[in-house]
Design a protein that fits this description.
Elements (H helix, E strand, L loop, with lengths): L15 E14 L2 E7 L4 E7 L5 H9 L5 E10 L7 E12 L14 H6 L1 H4 L3 H23 L3 E2 L5 E2 L11 E3 L5 E4 L4 H11 L1 E9 L12 E10 L3 H22 L1 H6 L5 H8 L3 E4 H11 L11 H9 L5 E4 L12 E2 L2 E5 L1 E6 L4 E9 L3 H10 L4 H9 L8 E7 H9 L20
Parallel strand pairs: 3-5, 6-10, 12-13
Antiparallel strand pairs: 1-2, 1-4, 2-3, 4-5, 7-9, 8-9, 10-11, 11-18, 13-16, 14-15, 16-17, 17-18
The chain binds 4-amino-1,4-dioxobutan-2-aminium adenosine-5'-monophosphate and magnesium ion (MG).
Amino acid sequence: MVTFIADIKPELAGQEVVLRGWVSNLRFSGPIAFLNLRDGSGYMQVVAEKAKLSDKIWTDLEALNLESSLEITAKVSIHPKKADECELQLSDLKVVHINKAEYPISNKEHGVDFLLDNRHLWLRSKRQWAIQRVRNTIINATYEFFKANRFIKIDAPILTPNSCEDTTELFELEYFDLGKAYLSQSGQLYIEAAMFAHNRVFDFGPVFRAEKSKTRRHLIEFWMMDAEMAFVEHDENMDWQEKLIKFVVKSVLENNSADLLVLERDVKPLENVVNKDFARIHYSEAVKQLQKLGSDIKDGEDFGADDETMLTNSYDVPIFVDRYPAAIKSFYMPEDPNMPGYVLGNDLLAPEGYGEVIGGSQRIADYDLLKAKIEAHNYNMKDWQWYLDLRQYGSVPHSGFGYGLERLVSWICHLDHVRETIPFPRLLNRINP
Ligand code: 4AD
Ligand code: MG
């Protein structure tokens, strides 16, 4: 029976199994060989004893190299030193493919540029494997959370006639006879329309930002999840963000403990996220705290990455910073009637220095107010009429938010850079492979 490493449990001791996979490591100690096999679901040590195998099998074994592919038949046994782990005793071996050239990524240290050039192979390395598994859990948990809370998944378009966020970061292309089109920066505007049909909606897809930033937090192409809810105002919007992030982190702790171990991720800070209330502070208060911490930020200015790092390092939970100055936030955010000039919008900053993982806000629901904002931005009204229309028919207070998947993965895995969180990163200076 062909099985997966992940399904091999101590209860199977004594039974024979068939596995298909790749050589992760192979070492000979006289008449015994230790093969570390990986099959996508996990890693396992396979012990081969020359005395118990045919000459053909032993010769085949000797011919294997790193990342060769093979099928083995082996007997499950309990690991001699760890009673809750298994290893395998080889009985048969079928070689599927032996590499003619040496596999370029060895177990020694490589520079990050070399690894990124070999991203198509680097994905097989254990840390990279663990990261993608955590990413997968975050995606699944997100869908699960929304399904349990009556949200409908809406697929927003990627080619759009106008911008959602900052117009300086748009990827432009020619769209037949219709002029310019742009790659989407966020599905928000479109799921706002769908919200009027379904009440609670979300999207999840690739978005594009032609940002000339070369930081550990920026990708050119990344995956965003936007959620939008009818009849929800600013404070409740933050409640939803907190519930979602708690759910996602809890799911990673439950499903990926082995991966977090591979990544040497301290789980204590993640447990805090699940068990403690998130902090909530107004922008103006955050500025004061930052100034006390030594930042030279001035009231009215946006936070730099260093400011976010400084602020989040002084808390052990994620922080909602809300009511930013209107001038530094998007046109669709309404001002707080009690704090003119400041908007009912928030960022969620992840702890341990990671910073912004979510941007969200209430949306302007009033037709005339929104029209005035669009005009003030000198946007072409023709492209925006559909969005304004939403405020003409059954307008409701509503709010939403968007998370950057790679920022979440980077924080939850405690990585130095978002480039390792996405299978094929698109960076300012890199589009290959
Ligand atoms: O804060 P942003 O720009 O918000 C929006 O686009 C809203 N329309 C979302 C909404 O309300 N539905 O982007 C949302 C998140 C950020 O908080 C960040 O996590 C991530 O997207 N993000 C990036 N991630 C990687 N690389 C970049 N260049 C990113 N820019 C934003
Ligand atoms: Mg933002």
